[in-house]
Write a structure and sequence with these properties.
By secondary structure, this protein is mostly beta strands. The chain has one helix spanning 45-49; strands at residues 2-4, 10-12, 20-21, 26-33, 40-44. A hairpin with a 4-residue loop joins strand 3 (20-21) and strand 4 (26-33).
Length: 78
């Protein structure tokens, strides 16, 4: 899930973030709404990760997708 780089820093992947819109590789965290039409435009994940004021290469706005409990369909966990 993560890339390990020098000095044991962990860099998260956008594909594992709750803000990632996978069908178009967009980031829902960084968006702009047209005040006339109401249409929302999202930044690409690539643009957000390469912009120091947004998520940056370190993924500072990364929020992991919650892991599902494999036992929930049986009525609970362990």
């Amino acid at each position: 899930i993560y890339i390990m780089i020098a000095k044991q820093n962990i860099i998260p992947f956008c594909k594992d973030c709750v803000h990632f819109i996978s069908k178009k590789s967009l980031c829902a965290k960084f968006k702009q709404q047209d005040l006339v039409t109401g249409q929302v435009k999202y930044d690409t994940a690539h643009k957000a990760r390469n912009h120091p004021g947004k998520c940056d290469t370190t993924g500072i706005h990364f929020d992991p997708v919650p892991k599902q409990n494999p036992y929930t369909h049986f009525g609970g966990g362990l």
